[in-house]
Amino acid sequence: MMRSRKPLAVLTAIATMIGGLAIGGIAQADTTADPNNTATWAKTITLKASDYMQQFYTTTYDANASDLKANLRSFKYVKLASYETSESNGANGAKEYRLTLNTVADNTEKIKTAFNNVTLADNSTLGSKYQAQVSNGITDPLRWLGTQNLTEGTSNNNSADGKLTITAANQYDLAAQLETQFNNTADEITTADIAVNKADKTLTFTFSDPGLYLIIDETTGNGVVNITSTGANGSTGTRTYGKIKPILIGTPIPTDFSITNPDDAAVKLGRVDSTEIKQTISDEIKTKVFFKKTDAQGNALQGATFTIRKVKTDKVASVNPADKDSFDQVWNQSDNFDSSFGTNGSADASSDQDGKFDFDGLSKGKYLIYETGLPTGGYLEDYAGRFILEVQQNDAPNNGTAAPTISHTLTDVLKSGLLTDADDNGLVSTGKTNNGTSDANPYTYKNITDTSQLPATGGTGIALFIVAAVILAGGAGVLAVKSRKTKRMLTM
């Protein structure tokens, strides 16, 4: 079992969980606990994952591992105060008990410093509020804290009984300030003192004494853990688990005897089941999109250059070009694009001897792709590729061991029928063979040297319209000539 630095006499059951954590402690102590002997009280603290067991691990969590203690995060602790009870007789002669905290003597000055660094809503400090009570005989900083009110709200207004209302944000800040003060002197929590419960998603720490503790996540790399997974279709994902925020928490308070100060912070925070950890969890998923360039006959074209730009997040809804002219207008307005993408806001790729190229490392968002360099051979500039690529990020697996998946769609802005498998709106859906998800299934786009090479079907059937236009134009010319000839005959 872990030994506290200087075990003191026993004190209030405060279980404050602070510093990015939901507030709370562990209740349900041993019902045989002696209210006059706090040494008989439970000596454990339980942390609960907010989402996944993965939050407690530094490598990919395996629920079937033979040793669930392997690769756990590293934790340290400081015992800040002991519990103390004072007995009295109730109205019917029944015994009642008041709970208070006794600060570990060696920790007093550091705790006062932490108090001074917590700013309240009125721009005063927690330290100044504490100092105002020193003249009233309360010199122990944590004894004072345990007699105040805690709230999930945002107001520090005094309650009717004159107690300070300490907000959740203040409590979180206090835990962070305490970490700053004690980080270099905290003791390690060894795996021998940790119990893992994968069904409840909890870690339980066992200490030598009951009392108020500060729990610190000391995992290397500033507590940041990256879990990377490789998905289908060339996608890679990284789920980043940040450092678990520092926790100010007490061991459980017994529930089988009457407490005279149930509204004090110490008591209210000590009577909950477990403390849910808080940490930042973020996902960065990236994918690779594959392309192929061919001529009208399907022969691979080398040397085509394509440029990709990522649309700014706040421009996604408005940037939606529907034809060549609107695409070119959007493309020439640099304010539409994310300058941090690629090199100065763009990336280039060129088709190889097999006509293939790809864009890698694409995260969720909307992209415009433009064929900025045609291959040699007299290909028409008007039919250089202009595409909208949309990359979607899907939900993560519910076990937290892998990042979300990613998918994408491509739209031919020209709707020319030159993008293989595109529908009448120029869209290639994920169910199509040429869906850009692998080197074997690239998005395939054709270059043409003459409009007669436009597909007769697919896209908008533009070739048919051109042929029809030529026929109609020729017919109109014949009619015009015949009309003039008839008019001359009538005037003769």
What does this structure look like?
With about 500 residues, the chain is of the alpha+beta class. The chain folds into three domains: about 40-280, no CATH class; about 285-460, Immunoglobulin-like; about 465-490. The protein has helices at about 110-115, 125-135, 140-145, 170-180, 265-270, 325-330, 460-490, and strands at about 45-50, 75-90, 95-105, 150, 165, 185-190, 195, 200-205, 210-215, 225-230, 235-240, 245-250, 260, 275, 280-295, 305-310, 345-350, 355-360, 365-375, 385-395, 405-410, 425-430, 445. The strands form five sheets. Strands 2, 3, 6, 9, 12 and 13 form a six-stranded mixed beta sheet that branches. The longest helix is centred in the C-terminal third of the chain and has 30 residues, at about 460-490. The radius of gyration is 35 Å and the shape is elongated. The relative contact order is 0.15.
